[in-house]
Every structure is written in C-alpha cells, then in structure tokens.
Amino acid sequence: MKFSLLVIITLIIISASAYLTIRNRLASGRNYSKKSWVTPVALHLAPVVALISYAYEGIGGLGFLILGLLFIVSAYYTKELPK
After folding, report:
1. Is 31 strand, coil or helix?
2. What Cα–Cα distance (Å) separates residue 19 from each residue in 10, 25, 44, 61, 79?
C-alpha cells in the first residue's frame, strides 16, 4: 500500500511538472534548440530512475550510477538553457 501510494504521488508530480515545463516553453514563442531540452528531460527522468531502483532493490548500484550520470549531464547542459 505504501509503495503504490508513493509511486502514484511521484508520477502525478512528475507528469504535472513535465506538462508545465512543456507548456511554458511552447507559450514563450521562442525557438529552443534540442540541447536546451536535455536538462529538463534529465531532471524529470531522475525520480523515475529512483523509483525503479527503489522497486527493484537488486539494482541499487546501477540506479545510483544512472542517477549520477543524469545529474552530471543535466549540470553540463545548463549552459544551453535560455536566459
């Protein structure tokens, strides 16, 4: 019960955040490059990877590695974000 509620709440929050991010970027009318989407996508994938590594306890190290890579990639591409 506790795990399923955690998953549902997290997926709702991720979905709402992704929707708001896409809506705000499209509403601004600016033409964004593909590189500027890397940071938001990586930061939206991080909680999904964390949930998967939480659900499958055997891949904890792999999940930690993937989370680290996502954060490094998102930090690297912050220079591409619009000002």
Report:
1. coil
2. 14, 10, 11, 30, 22
Of residues 17, 15, 22, 35, the one with CA closest to residue 82: 35
Check: CB of residue 38 under 8 Å from CB of residue 73: yes
Kindly state the tokens that stand for 12: 């709702």
Q: What pLDDT, in 10s, does the model give residues 17-29? A: 999 999 998 898 8
Q: Under 8 Å CB-to-CB from 46, ≥6 apart: which residues?
A: 67, 70, 71, 74
Burial of 17 per CB tally in 10 Å (0-12, 13-18, 19+): middle
